[in-house]
Specification:
Dihydrodipicolinate Reductase, domain 2; Rossmann fold; six-stranded parallel beta sheet; alpha/beta; 2 domains; 15 strands; homotetramer
Chain lengths: ~325, ~325, ~325, ~325
């Protein structure tokens, strides 16, 4: 059994995490190469993780025969063309979300994937690989909660990271595209349905800077899905308590809540503040094992010749929905899909 | 200090509870008379609570000199005219919600109240008198959570009472008027603002019977309030776990959740089902002390010559909003107030 | 139905609370008289609660024909003789714990009670009247948790009241007699059994002052009960978070925990301290309704000619056990009952 | 950097888990060999994990030059002599608890370890490597909870595994040695102190079979530690809800609780049973990452030439204490260390 040789692209915070995971925690895989434009960062990471091949150029990396697959953690604007180029070079591709920075780009990515049916393509909707979300999904799929009535999902980033969020605002696409996409993916996955209408609102409650991009620091939307399920999504940048990703699925026979308390760990503290649990700080902490599991799934798909459960069409569909939410928000109107 | 002599009208489940409370738990008050069309129920309750005067006719009761105030727990359709008649007879009035079964009726009630400025009128939004809601409101009013971003409130009745809900459906006005009014009242109370837009959806997920009245068994709406606050309300008849009234107020500096677990009491059970808390069964259990507190407030207002915090205009405003939510639901459209 | 006319003795914090409850929240009862040596306190309370008869002398009060029953919230050292005197004067008696300040005194109280079989005597073990403890007890009695294996109970007073606790230390009898008696009562009530052995330890962890009285600021003991049940009790004066009374009963088929989080109310706060619940401040807050319920039970027993579930022998037995725990602690030895 | 070549001994449930972890999740290590007397199990596991060298004989395995270290997950009775033999053969040793089946054996193990100061020896107290226990320990060590007052720790195995526990009873050494050793280790680690006295009780509450070995199915003990800290330990075989390992450390300035609800994951279920969390099933589920972390620490110590935080003396000391608890239980007496 040969190991899947992976070239990892992009060494931002999540990129480094993926590289570390591939180097140390993913079975049947080998971190064969790293690629980044920051030569110092590249050298430091490669040295630390024992990676022999480093590339400043993505094109050079995918030209290498020693690589079977690429993991793209590059800037969002590069995703579509890197996906297409890597597939054209015969490499399996795992790409962080988004698939592209416009629906048109997503469609291009679809074409590239369709042109290479023998290669594995997978998009990084890591929440699907979190043990708690998986456990809940099995229960829903098994009919344990009956018919889904309301799907509610929150994505909240801590206020303490607001400066980074403001700096990134010009390029993020806004809260619906940058944050709510994960909730949209979950809504489709849990309900097995698609949205029919959406109304979206929000505002700059604390940080007027987001207004420059026709965005709010906290936004929400209410969607009616085709199977009748109500879907309420909330995305915010000012969480006072920590990184809060929570989901509730109300069914006719049962209700599931995932992470309604964003607990850091199993420690409970009793002191002058009351009885309390400290919270997860960020996505890397909360989804630590989900990030491992998703890459493992990608590697297993490559190694076993399977297709991942997350397809390129999921990426396009989620983007289309997020853009429609954004449009509803900007126009202040009800939109029918 | 003379006790406030109260005539209580209507001996349904909540009516009996109010009568018991007035007889036994309300200070500065005396349960002086009971009124109901069911003579047997009247006799039994009067005997049990030691009430000497019983009336089959509301008009006769309010003609009595021995009564200072009435508590109306009669069918909704009678509220407006009973309010007007009681005030005209010089009695202070506490009325259960709704103020009337149409906005026009609410306006009539307003006029009746305005015509008797010396009499106390109070509407039964009991949640405002629940200790936990009061505690949360004080924190919000004190600015402890900063600016309100999202107000989310649920009213869920247990599936096990569905037959009663279906039987009552022709007269209930639908989920927005029968259930969500309490959440609408809370939203206005907590945010200090009024709605600007509303989009409402829902369906009959388990019980098609509600469809006959253009209603769903579970419905929700998303409102934008004038101060920018997002408001998401959910009302359902099929709660699998019990009576669930919960509210979350997300602010820029803190978040409050009231009763996110609808615990019956402080007992936690560890058995083959896991670690669990049993749930409140119904509104009488959950709001046991709130029902006492609200009547106490009414009596104190009468005794001390004060005006209650809940005015007749709150009743009208909440009804207007609920009718607008209902219209948005029936039309499937976005409505601007 | 005549109301039970009660004379309430002692206007400390709990005494005032009992007086307020009798005046306003207890059915079939009337607060007929108050007794305290502090004339100003007496006057203020009587005025506020509308009580016409005030006594500086206990003996004079029980000589009054206008009183049916007394509620003793006087200093512990007076309990036994006041119980005897009140019974001798033909009054029903409710006494706060302890029954006496020595086992000999408890035996005297027993004799006084036995000499007046037609009068109601009840001791104030209020926890038995808390809804959550009652709910748990019903489950245990119904066999829902199988055979009791371990009974664990904590009584913790907040550190912020430490000055009062230190001032009271010369007269309190120590933590086992002042605090753990409630847990001992619960242990006997839940297990239906009696202790066979006890080993007790503890120390002055923060406040050496308690050492003067051969006591610790935090103590614990492990008892083996005759039915085999293990009983672990902990009593402490330095709780950092609030007033914490919690109990766990581990059975062979289920486990119950009562108030394992000493939550103040149903509000959950999410802020920079994490996700938290604030805590009860003191016994008056935590056992607010239990204090009402126990007096209601006393009044109902008087009115209906019933005997209370808590007998004088429970008082003696609990005292004997607490003194034995204290002896085990002081001697550092294992004691067999 | 060469990888540490590990030979893993014993393919019971935990042995297989350790082998899988070493093969797939431990960095800087290689699963070089497997050893078990069950040839079929050996073949199956080796094939699945890609291990080329298999041994039916422990002696042959440690004679191999291709192995740097051994991980002992063999029957408890073999630990001491395998530790000694492996060290004598120049191998680093990680051994599951216990160090030996008697204090005399533990002392032999100490001598073997002392005779090879250049080799790493580590004992498997995995709880110290659980993230939540580590987080709590840092807080305690940093003084955040003040002076430790009470250390309480539970080890409960689910009733549903009782048949295996009964079958293993003749060889387990009893609940104190088989279960409470982990809690004893934690007590010493968190308090930094040693026991001075112990009183132990318990019984066969559901399963008389344990009585044959002078043991109970549920036992507990109360210890006074030299620094004054009270320590209460409980070990049981009949947990109705799942695998429950919880710890509470009450300090003068704060209280920490670790895993007071033994939640399976972050999913909360609301259904006819109330609001509930399902529980961990067994130690492999609860301590999944702790088992990885402890072997990683062992490997890092070998690779970096460090000594582990858990020494051979910890193993001896914990055994001595557990045997003393057992003696106190069997004799029904208070024992001073």
């Amino acid at each position: 059994m040969n190991k899947v040789k992976i070239g990892s692209v992009g060494l931002g915070r999540l990129g480094v995490r993926h590289a570390e995971n591939i180097a140390g925690k993913i079975q049947r895989a080998e971190l064969a190469a790293l690629c980044d434009v920051d030569a110092a960062k590249l050298r430091e990471t490669a040295g630390r993780l024992g990676v022999s091949r480093c590339f400043g150029s993505f094109e050079e990396m995918i030209a290498s025969k020693d690589i079977d697959a690429v993991v793209l953690v590059s800037p969002s604007g590069l995703h579509t063309k890197q996906i297409a180029a890597a597939l054209a070079a015969g490499k399996h591709v795992f790409s962080e979300k988004p698939l592209g920075v416009s629906v048109a780009e997503c469609k291009e990515a679809e074409k590239a994937v369709e042109a290479h049916p023998d290669l594995v393509f997978m998009l990084g909707f890591m929440r699907r690989f979190d043990e708690s979300y998986q456990y809940a999904h099995q229960k829903v799929a098994a009919g344990e909660i009956g018919r889904p009535v309301l799907f509610r999902s929150y994505s909240q980033d801590p206020e303490k990271f607001i400066e980074g969020a403001i700096a990134f605002a010009p390029h993020s696409g806004g809260q619906f595209l940058d944050m709510a996409v994960h909730d949209i993916d979950l809504a489709r996955w849990f309900t097995g349905s698609e949205p029919e209408t959406v109304y979206a609102i929000g505002d700059c409650y604390a940080h007027p800077e987001f207004g420059r991009y026709k965005d709010g620091d906290n936004v929400s939307c209410l969607l009616k899905f085709k199977n009748g399920c109500m879907v309420f999504l909330f995305a915010g940048r000012t969480a006072p308590h920590g990184y809060n990703v929570e989901t509730e699925i109300i069914g006719t026979k049962g209700i599931l809540r995932i992470a309604s308390v964003p607990q850091k760990n199993l420690v409970e503290i009793l002191d002058s503040h009351g009885v309390r649990k400290e919270c997860s700080e960020n996505f890397l902490e909360r989804f630590e094992s989900a990030y491992v599991n998703e890459i493992q799934e990608f590697v297993d798909c490559v190694a076993d010749g399977r297709k991942p459960v997350v397809s390129v069409y999921d990426g396009t569909r989620v983007s289309e929905i997020a853009y429609t939410c954004k449009a509803a928000f900007e126009q202040g109107s009800l939109i029918t899909f």
